[in-house]
Amino acid sequence: MAIGLYIHVPFCIKKCFYCDFTSYLLTFEAADAYLNALSGEIRMYGHTLPHGLREVSSVYIGGGTPTCLPACEIRSVLEKIRSVFSLLPECEVTLEANPGTISQEGLQELAECGVNRLSLGIQSFQDSHLGILGRIHTAGEAVEAIHLARKAGFRNLSLDLIYGIPGQTLEEWLETLSRTVDLSPEHISAYGLQLEEGTPLKRSVEKGEYEKCPEELDLSMYQAAIDFLTDSGYDHYEVSNFARTGKQCAHNLVYWMNQPYLGLGPAAHSCLFGERFSNEPLLERYLDKVARGVLPVEHRSILGAGVEMSETMFLGLRLINGVNLNLFLRRYGFEANEIYRAQITGLIEKGLLEQINGFLRLSKKGLPVANRVFSEFV
Amino acid sequence: MEWEKERIRNFCIIAHIDHGKSTLADRLLEYTGAVCGREMTEQVLDQMELERERGITIKMQAVRLNYRAEDGRDYQLNLIDTPGHVDFSYEVSRSLAACEGALLVVDAAQGIEAQTLANVYLALDHNLEIIPVINKIDLPSAEPEIVKKEIEDVIGIDASCAVMASAKHGQGIKEILEQIVAKIPPPGGQPLAPLRAMIFDSHYDPYKGVIAYIRVIEGSVKTGMRVRMMATCKEFELNEVGIFKPVPASIDRLLTGEVGYIAASIKNVQDCRVGDTVTDAGNPASIPLPGYRRVTPMVYCGLYPVDTVGYEDLRDALEKLELNDASLIFEPETSAALGFGFRCGFLGLLHMEIIQERLEREYGLSLITTAPNVIYRITTTTGEVVEIENPSKMPPAGKVDMIEEPYVKATIMTPKDYVGAAMELSQERRGIFDNMEYMGINRVMLTYDMPLSEIIFDFFDQLKSRTKGYASLDYELAGFKQSELVKLDIIIAGEVLDALSVIVHRDKAFYRGRALVEKLRELIPRHLFEIPIQASIGNRIIARDTVRAVRKDVLAKCYGGDISRKRKLLEKQKEGKKRMKQVGNVEIPQEAFMAVLRVGE
Predict the structure, then answer these.
(1) CB within 10 Å: which end of chain A, N or C, has fewer?
(2) What is the value of pTM for the model shown?
């Protein structure tokens, strides 16, 4: 069975105000040590991983900001991966890119070494919003980055957008959406801003420097994104994701369909053989473990069948098509309708779920309050 | 030791919470060798975990100490522990009746508190010899001379020989023991008269049945004797007579003046009531000892399982607690909102909280507790008099001629700087001023007639917060009085929630209704639909508010690294739901049913 492969690059030029991912400020020494350890980790899997699990259907290099490393380093990471894993012919290879950290030559090299999909963090076309979010680029630079990527030959671009930014109006959001569509990316992710614990943005809101986006407006923006992007020919296929036909993100589908994946690098998570494990999030400890020749895993937990089934449900329900009930039955030997009879009946009665052509999915009413549905399955 | 009545001393310790009673008892036990320091868990007299946490004694024990005094003779000292809280004042009076003397322990830094005073007066009523002990003299803020003067001024007893002690450091213990021997009179009573022994406490032991703690007033009691409880007329054959040292030790007999326990495979504490007189069935005494009365619960609340299937478990648990607690009463009741549960009666708020906590902690039950209320006496238009212990049982307004509610005489002691604050609060709570008295230069004693319902409505917390923690409170029941009362209903999503109905004074109904509705709006979580909340008197809506609907609640992102974290988030959401009671379509958290207690004035 093919797996998805995730590589975490834990460096940024500057951390965005809303981000709570593991990331360090980039220094030459740290990057060097990290890249060495990453090669070590890849080699270790070369010794331990059964060959059946080395077929890779998607690679996703995320962060942090992968593009703050020189392109030649990405090339060498991909080469090392190829020496241990076998990438299937149609393998999607995505790299997250920050418009503030790319160059024509760099993009050229990335395209040459096999990166075939770029995910660009655009977030907004209003510079004032980018300032609030703490992004290092302007809207103009983002547009420029997209042109450069096209010039370098990228045929599969994804743009990340954020709505619900403090002070953002519905009109501004519609403008961002329409300018995005004008650039005709193959894929768009539109995320409602979440104020995560411990982030500077959350603190600013708590201190009253910014006003949190009101729930009604947040909802209107979400509805506007769905309507506008669907009208513009994008298929709304996951809670926050939209794609042209055939351009859904293969790697992220692995997560939502609860398929196996392996994560490399600090803080990366994996799910293989019914076990979930996560790497040391602290760079130092990650480096130390690899240097001692042990897998840099911090935490492991075996998922029982119950947990696995519940995750298949709440992850699968993120997809607009929903959970394929037939696949569920084949995978676990039980009908989802049997295992979750009370929950499913209740949620269908409340009009939050619907069952159509062998799929169980969120209704239009259920989509914006999906957590209420998900929590029934945990 | 040979029994010689002249060498028995029965005493108890009177102290305010935190003034060091338990520590002092520990030291006395240690000094007399009843326990040695190492094998002693802290504060051996306080048995239950809960008591230890709250620092109060709920159940009493009696420990026999053997002490060789400086006169070279051996004495039998019986330390009878007393509860320190107003809820248990009847038990206090019974244990005082079992003693000839009392140690009055006063914190050297804090002085006399209302509760101490109430118990000292009780002790003086029983003609007990009082030995003042000024404790915690090691504290930097200790002012023993001022406290000594306070004892003399306020209580009117000679404090010149007061023992200066620090139970914590073992200081003054010997002197206390010597004063006990020298000052407390030995017990009286006719050794050859028919047996009369007073039960001052009891507890249920799963192996031996009820263990009754007794003080032999006259005659003697021995194993194998057939005894009669004079109030309940039940007879039992004693299969054990013993003393606590402090571990129970069975002995052949208890003689006049002695303190110990009896066991007779008694199944039910109700048959063995505190205050009752035990006599020899074969040679009964003609009249029982004075002072017996059945304690009646004054505070009631509804207890419901969160999950309806928990009803049987709740009943089993209540039945078990009842074995040990003769003052707990309960009967099944049904609430339209909450389903099947029990109306439970308690001696007071503390008693109620203790029972609730024990049900949750020891029996693992998840409970909905309705706000406590007092008993109301209602005269209907047809002249019938009914007592209701549940507001939802109140007859319709048109059929009520008069409502009476229980009043208490409340005693508040406060530093003089806070007299204004304490009076203001008492007035707000419909208190009728009775008296004000200076005690020494700095402290004032206020007495008020006040409705009990106002006391149970967070009065003590308010008093503490308005007097920076300095005031103390004591109260005793003082009969029923007519009041202008109305029933306030709460309507949630169009349905009257019977469990939230309260009876309030007419003048406060509007305010209380609005505050309650606001509090409920905060406590009831948002649902996927709007929830109107209203307060009404009869058919008139006096306040309304709305819990807004949830419009958007969805995690924007969920990728590989997020799954376990997001799962935890969802689990938390679900866990929160479990503690709620589903009423119609609306999920209501447990705290909401107590909300009425938490709306500030």
Answers:
(1) N
(2) 0.70
